[in-house]
Write a structure and sequence with these properties.
InterPro entries: QcrA_N (IPR045603), Rieske_2Fe-2S (IPR017941), Rieske_2Fe-2S_sf (IPR036922), Rieske_Fe-S_prot (IPR014349). This protein is of the alpha+beta class. The protein is built from eight helices and 14 strands.
Amino acid sequence: MSDDQIAVPEPHATPATTGGTDTIDRFDNPGLPPHRPRRSDVDAKAAKRAEHQVSALFTLSVLASIAFAVCYFVVDPNLRGRLILIGPMNLYHLILGLTMAVSLLGIGLGAIHWAKTLMPDTEIAEERHLMASDQASRDETAGVLSAGFREAQLDRRPVLLALTGGALALFAIPVALPTIFGLGPLPGDTLESTVWKRGMKLMIDPSGTPIRPEHLTQGTVVHVMPEGFVGDNHEEDGPSALEIMEAKATASVLLVKLNPGDIQSQKQLDWGVDGIVAYSKICTHVGCPVALYERQTHHLLCPCHQSTFDMTNDCEVIFGPAKRPLPQLPIMVENGYLVAADGFAEPIGPSYWERG
């Protein structure tokens, strides 16, 4: 017999041999270790105490789920505060996160404690064999499930069973509420218009510096926002943080200084100032920020799907999946600064089914 035919038995296993040779045929089944009952298996008081502990954990989950729902509608989404070792943060998000965590933790700890103390823990070994699907086997399976239901004491502990179902059912609240209501307010007219209005200064984002035409040289590219919507505006009469976020998603503009001789469209010349033109940064494909400008070709590229726009010809699409040109923002000079002459004349952003 070659060396690779030698089998080494595992520790504490007694090999059985055949035919008087040293070749190992099988190992005797060592069987299962003796079952060690838990305290709750032999002490009714311990079992009742474990039931109360599991009930308390599921009750904690139920209360946390209800607290999540209440806080979701009652607490101000813009509530902010400062925490030790963390610094300033949005307390609304913190409260929702903690209540959701406690709700899920109560379910998890309750299920684990239930399994450790009350559910049967007897070791069972099932021999592998073909499972017939006749009626007798189905009846046997139903009997096993019924016995397991009784052994888990579900029939004797209705409060525990009810709290388990309640905790699992109410945990859907922290999942469903953000899904249903967390998508933000209805768009209203934001799909058709932006916050840009006549006379609004063009402000460099994020510094908030107004722009004079003489400060721009040919080829200059500047990211701008309307006055009052730049950075974190904390003025009492100014827009809220949510309004600033919405403005950044819809009113972002790219300002470029071109050579007037390179511009092919009269509209661009009329809506610009000495070759300075302003276009929406929101790609008309799926809304990615368009911000890659090729100075030599005057092409504007979207980094997401490579839609390419010609800035010398009304930002027409010359490559990629976008179907519409970028909308132009008419600008003018007022008191020496660049300001909007009006809002966008057409909807910004990607096309949608109701847009002609």
